[in-house]
Specification:
alpha+beta, Beta-Lactamase, globular, 5-stranded antiparallel β-sheet, 116 residues, 37% helix, 3 helices
């Protein structure tokens, strides 16, 4: 497996990033000193399940992106194909625009590699 998330490691304010399967299996991670990558992976899988059900029940269709903000950090997650998510925890108050562009680029690249 390659260093798929290496480009996120150099981005300012990124605390932890994980590429995770819907079962909660951590495929790759960076960071993890402030927020555990294993916990972020498990919570991502749990939140994807809950958000997908809520989206369906509300008539919204498939889940593509979700985020939330706490006192200390923001979590942004993008779906990568049908069975994976790319989730990044970033320091609260930072501007996530460049991060979101990089996450979208990575997601498009990863979907062809993970879904084959």
């Amino acid at each position: 497996m390659g260093q798929w998330l290496a480009s996120l490691a150099s981005m300012p304010h990124v605390l932890t990033a994980v590429l995770v399967s819907d079962s909660g299996l951590e495929i790759e991670s960076i960071g993890g000193a402030v927020i555990s990558s294993q916990i972020l992976a498990a919570e991502t899988a749990s939140l994807v399940r809950a958000s997908s059900i809520a989206g369906t029940n509300l008539g919204g269709g498939k889940l593509f992106r979700w985020s939330f903000t706490t006192d200390h950090f923001e979590v942004i997650s993008l779906r990568v194909g049908l069975q994976h998510s790319l989730t990044v925890a970033v320091q609260r108050g930072s501007d996530p625009r460049n991060l979101q562009v990089e996450m979208a680029r990575l997601s498009l690249q990863l979907v062809s590699q993970l879904e084959n």
